[in-house]
Every structure is written in C-alpha cells, then in structure tokens.
Amino acid sequence: MDKLMKIGRNDPCWCGSSIKYKKCHASFDSRLEIYRNKGAVVPSRKLIKTPEQIQGIRESAKINIAVLDYVSEHIHEGITTEMIDQWVYEQTTRCHAIPAPLNYEGFPKSVCTSVNDQVCHGIPSPDVVLRDGDIVNVDVSTIYNGYFSDSSRMFCIGNVSPEKQRLVDVTKESLSVGLEQVKPWGFLGDMGQAIHDFALQNGYSVVRQIGGHGVGLEFHEDPWVSYVSKKGTEMVMAPGMVFTIEPMINMGTDEIFTDEDDGWTVYTADGKPSAQWEIQVLVTEDGYEILSY
Ligand code: MF3
Ligand code: CO
Question: Residues 6-28: pLDDT tens digits?
C-alpha cells in the first residue's frame, strides 16, 4: 500500500473518483489495514481499478468475447491451428484492438491453441490439424485502448470420447464452483481450494506451477492466482480487483513439462489430456462481475 501518501479525509480520494476521501475509499482502506495487521496479503492501490479503468477493461473484454465467439462459430474438424491464429488476428485488428500474445516475451503468434495433452501456451501451426476426437483450448488475450482482457474456452472436435468430454465439462463447472467464493473480503485461497477440492472429487489433478493473474492495465499483474491454494490464505479480495480464473485440470498426473524446442508449449508428463477454461472477473461490492469468458 502507498504508505507515504497521506490523504486528508476531505482531500479527493486516491481512486480518482473526485469524491472526498472520507466518503470514498477511507473505510475501504481501514478495512484493508485490519487485514494487513493480521498478517494477510492485501492488494496495493494499483490493483484496485477505478470506475474509468473498469469501463476500459469492459470495452476490451467485449472484443475478447467477440473474437472467441467467432472462433466458436468457425472451428471444425480438418482446420489447422494456424487458421485459428489468422481468425484471431483478423477479428481483433478489425475491432482496432491488438492480440496481446503477439510478440509477448517472444511468443510468435496471436493466440494460444493447446490440443489434448498440451496444457497451455500451444503455438498455432500449419502442421497441427484438428482431428475428430480432439479437445482444444483457445486462449485469447486482447489489448484495446491500453486495457487488457483475457479468456479461453475449450472446443470438442467431432466425436470426443466420454472421458475427454467429462474432463472438459468438469473443468468448466469448476469455474462456477470457484466463482461462488469470489466476494469482497474473502481470500483468493477460498476460491483456489474450492476448485482444487472439486477437481479431486472428480478424480482429476490440478496444475500447480501455472496459474491465473491480475489483469487489466497490464497483461499479467499481481496477484498470481493458484488453484491448489488453501482457504483463508493468499491475497484478500477487495472491490475493484480484476483477475482471471483459469485452472488447468489434468486427467492424470499434475506433473507437466515445457517443450524445450519451442520454449512455450506445456505438456502433461503422462501424455493424458488436460483441459482449461478461463474467465476474467471483477470483484464488486457484493460479489463479482464476469468481464470476459
Ligand atoms: N493467455 C495466457 C494467460 O492466460 C498467457 C499466454 S502468454 C503467451 O495468461 F505469450 F503465451 F501468449
Ligand atoms: Co490468463
């Protein structure tokens, strides 16, 4: 927290609302202070989005959703993941937005496409053809007017085995289970544990090393969001925080490895399938708002 910045109770609030501090974030700050004094991890002011920033992120998220809708309508057996990359590039730029993955830390494409035992960060390629029975995650991240949005969906190609279908469905359901725990003054660990417990009950494992993240003013902001965390731990959720819920759930082991040749693609160690859905949520005064899905 910005400790050095002393604000008088009659000064304009730090959030940019131009309302007096005492009528705006004063009680919010004292509430966070209580958590901090108890040793909890609390969000810095940068993680609390102003109404204007939230509106900017919403606009970005609308494009993000539209791009994923386009993929949903056009994806089918026989196309290459390169085609998905082209669609995402075209549809994003058509909306005057930028695909966030392109050139991000050297990532060469506009979208991540992860098939079957690929856990995440798969690179679209003309050599990867979607076949009957494949499950594929398409992860779209969008920059519009400087604001970031991020979400991903699973697609089942043709006739998918009941085992794979259940993995995809349970993973999607895990988002609702996690969302139930998203409320102000709860802990991110409440959400993480709920997802982990649910995956385990269904006979699956949850990837530990890769998680979600704060998002909005940057692609990846604090906090890092785990889906194997424990109730009552991790960062306190406060109104105005925006982060992703994007668990990667594996049919077999939670062990993973990264492709040494491309430096990006993450695989399950046992070659069994992995699924992921991602939504972007805002913590509100009384719960949450889903910004992108
Ligand atoms: N979209 C991914 C996420 O959910 C990040 C991908 S980084 C990239 O955080 F460079 F691979 F695109
Ligand atoms: Co993400």
Answer: 789 999 999 888 999 999 999 99
Inter-residue contact 151 to 293 (CB < 8 Å): yes
What is the residue with the minimal CA distance to atom 7 of ligand 1? 101
Rounded Cα distance between 118 and 259, Å, is 10
Minimum CA distance residue for ligand 1 atom 12: 101
pTM, two decimals, is 0.96
Q: Could you tell me the two tokens for 202?
A: 């269904």
CB atoms within 10 A of CB 227: 26
| Ligand at shortest distance from the CA of 140 | 1
User: How does DSSP classify residue 129?
Assistant: B
C-alpha span between 238 and 260 (Å, rounded): 39
Distance (Å) of CA 81 to CA 158, 208, 238, 279: 15, 26, 38, 22
First-last CA distance in the chain: 30
Cβ neighbours of 36 (radius 10 Å): 13
- Side-chain-side CA neighbours of 55 within 13 Å: the count stands at 3
CB of 201 closer than 8 Å to CB of 166: no
pLDDT digits (tens, 9 = 90+) for 203-231: 999 999 999 999 999 999 999 999 999 99
Partners of 268 in the beta sheet?
A: 256
Cα–Cα distance measured from residue 31 to residue 70, given in angstroms and rounded to the nearest whole number: 43
| Dist CA 283 CA 8 (whole Å) | 27
